[in-house]
Amino acid sequence: KNHLSNRINSMATSATLAMAAKARELKSEGKDIIGLSLGEPDFNIPDFIKEAAKQAVDDNYSSYSPVDGYADLKQAIANKFKRDNGLTYGLNQIVVSTGAKQSLANIAMVMLNQGDEVILPAPYWVSYSDIVKLAEGVPVEVATSIDTDFKMTPEQLEKAITPKTKMIWFSSPCNPSGSVYNEEELEGLAVVLRKHPNIFVVSDEIYEHINFRGGHVSIANIDGMYDRTITVNGVSKAFAMTGWRIGYIGAPEWIAKACTKFQGQITSGANAIAQRATIAALEAPVSSIKYMIDEFHKRRDLVLALLGEIKGFNLNVPEGAFYVFPDISGFFGKTLNGSLINNASDFSLYLLEHANVATVTGEAFGNPNCIRISYAASEKELREAIGRIKAVL
Ligand code: PLP
């Protein structure tokens, strides 16, 4: 008998983490696996951030922090919102959490009642749908395709709205597609949302700085949106601080207060040392991390050029994040080295088993025609991996 709760039994395992675990397992068996499945920068944390963390240890930042984060960290976040996004958030509108993942979980738990619908333009980040379901919300996927650069149009948004729609969640730059919504496109969505004042927006901007076109726009800055947008961000991607687990939100005060109340019963304040280090990260000029963004840009171009040589890979040009999301549906129905490829999961598994390259099936992101390839890997690894992919196709 299964004694676990229905809640956990009905939850999917994070596909990206599952793929990483499988790749690690094969590696430990001696297979030469190249992992392109994780959303993790392959850079070291910049030294000035490490120094701040060491200093925090010596300064005895060892007690519980305030649940919503140290006041001076929240001030640094407020300054960052102002500097980078033109957004004014007071300290009572900011909550620091254990990664943006916890920020998102807090939001779902405090905003959703059973049956509330959450519109997710697909492809969406892998955890959105299970976080929404955990809070008894209903994910409503809006399929986009490579033809619209994987962006949801205002018409699609309008059509997806029902009397039960409570929120819309999206990331820009997008994981997994790398798409970036420009001001005009956000304004287009806002035109629809202004007709529905009870719909709230989660704007996940964790890839904000990894933007090759420049000009990141926050939807909270669009007319009429500030009072119903929760802006989510964190230090995992831009500062290569994935393991340090710091994310944060800027939100209407009543939402921030509710998140703090919820977090106070679950985890309390985020890790004290990591919070202190985050002050250093956010106070530094964006130019201090430009070397990483330039490198991602170079790799994006390399990966697009190399994958573009493989017949059957249909690619758009992602403008941010560090993923490409090729449509590989042209392979469906084909048999490769004895394996029948019926869907993106079969294709991704085929690449793992035959090319020893770990990718993630698009099904995990709500798009069954694509796979996600992370280029947060060295140029050497990328060349080798794509060479192998080409060879087994
Ligand atoms: N949002 C998006 C779009 C992501 O890609 C990720 C990480 O992969 C997260 C949130 C979670 O980030 P964190 O490490 O801050 O929990």
What labels would you give this structure?
single chain; 393 residues; alpha/beta; Aspartate Aminotransferase, domain 1; Aspartate Aminotransferase, domain 2; 2 domains; 7-stranded mixed beta sheet; 3-stranded antiparallel beta sheet; binds pyridoxal-5'-phosphate
Tally of extended strands?
14
Total of DSSP H or I helical runs spanning 4+ residues:
13
CATH superfamily of the largest domain: Type I PLP-dependent aspartate aminotransferase-like (Major domain)
Q: Tell me the structural class.
A: alpha/beta
**Which strands sit side by side, in order, in the main sheet?**
2-8-7-6-5-3-4
The value of Rg in angstroms is 21 Å
Helix content: 25-40%
Mean pLDDT rating: 95
CATH C-level name of the largest domain: Alpha Beta
Give a list of the ligands: pyridoxal-5'-phosphate
Number of domains: 2
Largest sheet: 7 strands, mixed
Named CATH architecture of the largest domain? 3-Layer(aba) Sandwich
- How far apart lie the N and C ends? 44 Å
Which series of helices and strands comes N to C?
A: HHEHHEHEHEHEHEEEHHHEEEHEEEH
Rough outline: globular
Q: What fraction of the residues are assigned to beta strands by DSSP?
A: 5-15%
Pfam families: Aminotran_1_2
Protein name: Aminotransferase
Domain Aminotransferase class I/classII large: 31-389
GO molecular function: pyridoxal phosphate binding; transaminase activity
